[in-house]
Amino acid sequence: MAAEPRAPRRRTTSIDRTVIDAIAGVLLRCRRVLFITGAGLSADSGLPTYRGIGGLYDNKTTDEGLPIEVVLSGDMMTRRPDVAWKYIHQIELACRGAKPNRGHEVIAALQERLEQVVVLTQNVDGFHRDAGSRDVIEIHGDIHVLRCTRCRWHTRVADYATLTFPPRCPECAGVVRPGVVLFGEALPAEPFARLEDELARGFDAVFLVGTSAMFPYIARPVLLAKSEGKPTVEINPARTDLTDVVDFRVASTARNALRSLWLAYKSLAPTQTRLGR
Fold first, then answer.
1. 68: three-class secondary structure by DSSP
2. What is the mean pLDDT of residues 208-231?
3. Start-end ranges of CATH 3.30.1600.10 in the chain?
4. Mean pLDDT of the 178-193 span
5. Cα 121 vs. chain centroid, distance in angstroms?
6. CA 238 to chain centre
7. What Å distances lie between residue 234 and 98, 255, 257, CA to CA?
8. Residues of each domain in the chain carrying CATH 3.40.50.1220
9. How far from 60 is each of 20, 64, 70, 120, CA to CA, in Å?
10. Which range among 4-13, 62-71, 148-157, 248-257 shows the weakest confidence by mean pLDDT?
């Protein structure tokens, strides 16, 4: 396996400028916006998908003859942390060296124009924070956060280059695990509580970026905004279950669509920002 596999080049569709201009007009009237992001945004940074052609795990089983959902499960981390860490390490290697792309930067830059920009992300790469976003809800965690399974020790690392596998806690020698939700594990309560608080405050628009929104907790903010008459936007080259629900759809990669949206938005509100290009 290559040390840093990259996603295959994806075909992009032409961007409808009329739709982009309409969405920019919506943003101009917004104070609070929610961006819900998924793997499609990180793929634009060169991160491989885990399934499909060119994905890390496009075969049905792993070296151990088990589905990837089994080796990357909470149960495997408990019983055989060496096996779980083997594949967690592969994922981190695939991410290593990649950086936030223009899409991440645009979302972060909008913070300087709007009252609040909240990001609900399913990605575990930490790119939104690296790009400068402040209000980030990492619903599935961050692969760079490590915590002991026995005591309260925890830390954040830039990468796994100095780790031995499975890593051990420097304080109690317990097994260390990444701060991400593994298959079969319940999602942590804290991100959900924060999301509910933000939804109770309300958003002027909700954006769905690079995700199929297959999980109910990802689709819910879009459906809630739609029921309240708030504008909803989907950015995705492929159709999803919410394509026919949203008010605006941009059939393009996240990076290209957000870059175009930023330029259109700046033309309507041409004030200087820290992303002034």
1. helix
2. 93
3. 56-97+141-180
4. 91
5. 4
6. 17
7. 25, 13, 10
8. 1-7+15-47+100-140+185-270
9. 39, 11, 12, 30
10. 4-13
Among 124, 107, 240, CA closest to 187:
124
* Residue that is written with structure tokens 């104070």 in the block: 31
Q: According to the model, what pLDDT value does residue 44 have?
A: 86
Asked if pLDDT for residue 58 goes beyond 80, the answer is no
Backbone angles phi, psi at 208, to 5 degrees: -110, 115
Instruction: State the pLDDT confidence band at 2, using cuts at 50, 70 and 90.
Output: very low
Q: Which of 89, 104, 128, 140 is catalytic?
A: 140
- Would you say residue 171 has pLDDT above 60? yes
- The residue type of 173 is A
If DSSP states are collapsed to H, E and C, what string results for 207-227?
EEECCCCCCHHHHHHHHHHHH
Helix (H) or strand (E) holding 109: helix 102-109
Tell me how far apart the alpha carbons of residues 87 and 71 are, in angstroms, rounded to a whole number. 7
Is 140 catalytic? The answer is yes
Q: Specify the pTM.
A: 0.85
Per-residue pLDDT at 11 exceeds 90: no
Asked if 127 and 42 count as a contact pair (C-beta separation under 8 A), the reply is yes
What is the reported pLDDT for 5? 34
Closest CA to 257 of 92, 12, 1, 59: 12
Q: Which CATH number does 56-97+141-180 carry?
A: 3.30.1600.10
Q: How far apart are CA 145 and CA 159, in angstroms?
A: 10
The Cβ of residue 163 has, within 10 Å, a number of other Cβ atoms equal to 15
Superfamily of 1-7+15-47+100-140+185-270 according to CATH: TPP-binding domain (3.40.50.1220)
